[in-house]
Amino acid sequence: MDGHLQEVFGAPVAELYATATGPDASPALTRALELRSFLALAEEQVAQVRDRVHEAMAPDRDMGELSADDLRIDAQWLQAALDARNGYRAALGELLRTMPPPTQQPRPVRMVQPVIAATAPPPSPAAPAPARAGAARARRP
Fold it and tell me: Phi/psi class of residue 70: alpha, beta or left (left: φ > 0; alpha: ψ in -120 to 50)?
């Protein structure tokens, strides 16, 4: 994933960590490096369990030292570490896939409301009202 981080952010991982501590660090960079750190820890755990199993299963090892219980526990630990690794890889991949390009800086949103400039029309002579305007109708017998 380091190669993908370098490709997306345009700098080696060591430089990205230095940038992430600065005041101009983007939230996406900070999150990506946090996920990378979690991923590195999970991968270290996978390697430790793998190495322990390889050592226990070495061809020159005395078979009397083998323990099915130890191997069962190691298998559970390996599964947990692999699940964590896969989850962090997926989360980091999703973040890198969905984040805006680093060259596209978010612009502040400018809320503009239309201004209506109303001016009163110039005074005009009033038209005379119709003769019967407002008059009540007379009742017919």
Answer: alpha
C-alpha 91/C-alpha 32 separation (Å) is 9
Amino acid at 59: P
Strand residue runs (E) in the chain: none
- Rounded to whole angstroms, the Cα distance separating 68 from 70 reads 5
Find the mean pLDDT for residues 29-58.
94
Q: Which pLDDT score is estimated for 34?
A: 93
* 18: helix, strand or coil: helix
Q: Answer yes or no: are the C-beta atoms of 92 and 35 closer than 8 Å.
A: yes
- d(CA 109, CA 7) in angstroms, rounded, equals 29
> What single-letter amino acid sits at 102?
P
Inform me whether the pLDDT recorded for 36 exceeds 80: yes
Tell me how far apart the alpha carbons of residues 90 and 115 are, in angstroms, rounded to a whole number: 48
